[in-house]
User: What shape does this take?
Amino acid sequence: MPQKSFSWMIGGPQGGGINTSAELLAKVLSRGGYQVFGNIEYNSNIKGKHSYYRLRIAVEPVRSHLEEIHLLVALEDETLFGDLYHEWPAHRGHIHEVAEGGGILFQEGTQGIEERLNGRRVHLFPIPYSKFVEAALTAVGKGSQAHEYRIMNNTAALGAAIGVMGYDIDRVAAVIKEGFKGKASKVGEMNANCAHLAYDYARKHFAGKLEFSLPPAPAKPRKQIMIKGTQAVGIAKLKAGCGIQTYYPISPATDESVYLEGQQSAYKLVVLQTEDEVAAIDAAVMAAHGGVRASTSTSGPGFALMPEGLGFAAITEAPGPVIHVYQRGGPSTGLPTRQEQGDLRFALYAGQGDIPRIVMAPGDLNECFYDTFDAFNYADRYQVPVIVLVDKFLSGLYASLPPFDMSGLTIDRGALFDPKANGNGRYMRYRFTESGISPRSIPGQEGGMFWSTTDEHDQVGHISEAIGNRLVMMRKRMGKMDLAAREIPDEKKFTFSGNPKAPVSVVAWGSTKGAILDALARLDPEQQNYNFLQLRIFQPFPVEAVQRLLGSAGKIITLECNYSAQLAGVLREQTGIKVHHRVVKYDGRPFSEDEVVAALEKATADGGEEIVIADGRVIGPDYGRQQVDEMVELRKKNAKMNVPIVPLPPGYNR
Amino acid sequence: MATTPTKVEFKIKDYKADIHNDWCPGCGDFGILTALQMALVKLQIPSHRVAVVSGIGCSGKTPHYMQTYAFHTLHGRVMPSVTGLKLANPSLTVIGVGGDGDAYGIGAGHFVNGGRRNLDITYIVFNNDVYALTKGQGSPTIAQGTKTKSMAEESIMQALNPVALALVCGYTFVARGYALDVKTLTDLIAQGIRHRGSTLIDVLQTCPTYNDLHTKPWYEGKKPGQNGISPLYRLDQTDYDPRVQDPANRREVSQKKTQAILKSEEDERLPLGIFYQCEIPTYEDYLEKKGHIDRAHPLAEREDIFHRDVTPLLDALT
Ligand SMILES: Cc1ncc(C[n+]2csc(CCOP(=O)(O)OP(=O)(O)O)c2C)c(N)n1
Ligand code: SF4
Ligand SMILES: [Mg+2]
Assistant: This one.
């Protein structure tokens, strides 16, 4: 049955190589011309806990995942049945997510799958993973070490999955080998061989069994890359001329800094790992004052240490820094590796007093790149800190894209002190100007010396508590936001799609964009009934444009990943517009296409002012409690489930 | 950027800002300020090649009185601030200044890790035993069981030993000065600035307004019971040798550090001067060695980073 997209999932213990397999497959398919959308869900744990990686594969663009799985690849029991070994089980595995006609690939000998399928038509593909690992090892004289190479099971599983799906194993083998260069090439050969053997086995026993198949590959593959959010941000920073990145490690932001660390010598960049996020922002503020484009990346708990530095940047009118906040489940340590868009209000209001700041919220990988690039221009031009709200979902999302078009990118360093143009006049760092922007000198520059202070100050930069000066300085700083509001074009502040006269307007921000676009393409292919407003810059807020676009809307629905519908609140505050239905999701997981469809159907059928989404559906107030109780019951029935095998350290396979 | 000085010789007025100073009359901070300015005269560093970076407190106002690039930042954040600026432009002379509360209290975490980094910077701490700007609460250096007139009760916490702390954190030039001996302090600061690596100079500073224990007469031994003997003495007038001759020699390093810690524990009489000095590669040296920076072309002056070709990074993702 050819369907529009193919939904694939691999699950296994953390550290067990599921990301390697999934990303390898994604790369192979992307090179084959497919559009691939991948995302990983994992626990805040290093080894052993259940994680899973979803891929959605299509010919048309795909921007989100589906609830149903066409082929589930399980490396261990937990992927199938959940963590019933745990006193308070957290999930019931993924068997029930497999579509009728879909299939499950698993370690041969696993018991209990059929009874859990309750007669649903799901095809079972038992695979003796370790047999192929052993055979591949034996071929290179290491047959006795099979136990140590257990981590290679993921390679066997991938090979077998290709066999079941009927894709070209040679392409897969080629990409496997690419990952092992030089001395390691023998390991690459061995892995490729292992995948091949598993593939042959799967072809022999299960070819043609799966009722779903990949859509036919496009005849002319376009050139594309497979990229993650953290990479898109990192590359944009390099392109923008960022000189110093500071950070203190924290999920899910760290990957960006680690990526940049790898580019330091090639691109002349300093990545400074600080003692905490206070130091991270302050060092970045001073690097910006020092004449370098500077940035830092963190998530909620780290940003919680930064409001002080935001004020520092704002009152001293530093050109930056650019601060990426990768939101995750809060409050406090919260859900370190899970999705939430809970820091919108925090980003908008963090800090004491009135702080001019630009707050951006890219919604997809392209916007992660272009908005990050722009952020540095805004920082320099308006001499303000720039916060870029991203989130866990965007950080780890892995999708196919045409390579970024760099042709339109220009660097704007804002107003700079020019010793020649200054004549004999005294240089004043905070000179009152028409625009509110004072040309900045760079420490070391002759004639450009200045004072600066976090106290209120005069034009020279000395402390001043005078009333007149205070009034002008407040207007100068805050007025820069009016200037930014006028200068930054609407197309950077929001995107609007669909029929402007449609009866329903969907409003969202950040990473929910993809699932909404996919859902609308499904619900409203003719673009008659819905339009979609995605806010991309929250400060300065595009007040008039939003009022114009939503002013006559019949029904306004917001969708976001937090408890309190922060977007709906901000929308009301900024524009006076009251949202009719607030869809919220605070289960720590990103929206799937199906969840958006369910939410919009419920809302348009007048489903109440607040609609809560979790686990693929609209839920009622009892939903969470029921889950907890049911899981405990389930555990009682299945008390003997094995604890997952903790995989071996990485290095045997990548 | 031009580094050639416009004048042949810099005088103290070249480092002095033309602004009213609002420290209390007789405040020890004046001595430190003058010593800092005189040290720059001594070193003849063009004022626009110097950045003075402070925290918050009475001491935090120092940059305003300097004619250099001047940053009066946040309470406790001198070290991160200095770090960011120095990395942006390692060719600048970057000097951190701030209070004892700033450095050893709210900024303690930064102080510790700043030492580990060993950037080529100088940090001068104005140690007056009190949080002066907030009206004299005890600071981390106030001795246990003592109480200034500004404190309601005596301190029941132990005092922190700044010199010993700096030593274990990795500062490679660790010294103690006295604010009212401007001449000696000038020399000390000049040596500290000249030192390649992170310098910590803890300066005993009188605060006539709030600290009635460690006053000028006390430091001069003129209080009753002191018999005219100053509690201060100079290490350079003894046979104490603070300098590590061979930084590769672990034993020598360890012996000199231990000796410095022991010295810093002396409390009958307080030694002044350099406790420890060791020249080892700085943070910038390491960055340069790794190819991350090129000191001949500080990041702040590089144009090429705005024309980076990132296509190899994208190609690697196909
Ligand atoms: C985050 C923060 N907390 C508290 C203060 C209030 N505050 C201002 S100065 C100061 C203490 C200053 O003491 P010290 O660092 O020893 O400097 P001194 O005034 O003695 O020179 C405090 C607590 C502040 N400015 N910022
Ligand atoms: S309060 Fe003390 S430290 Fe502050 S200016 Fe007055 S004398 Fe100096
Ligand atoms: Mg003090």
Remarks:
- DSSP finds ten helices and ten strands in chain B.
- The first strand of chain B starts at residue 50 and ends at 54.
- Chain B has one domain: 12-293.
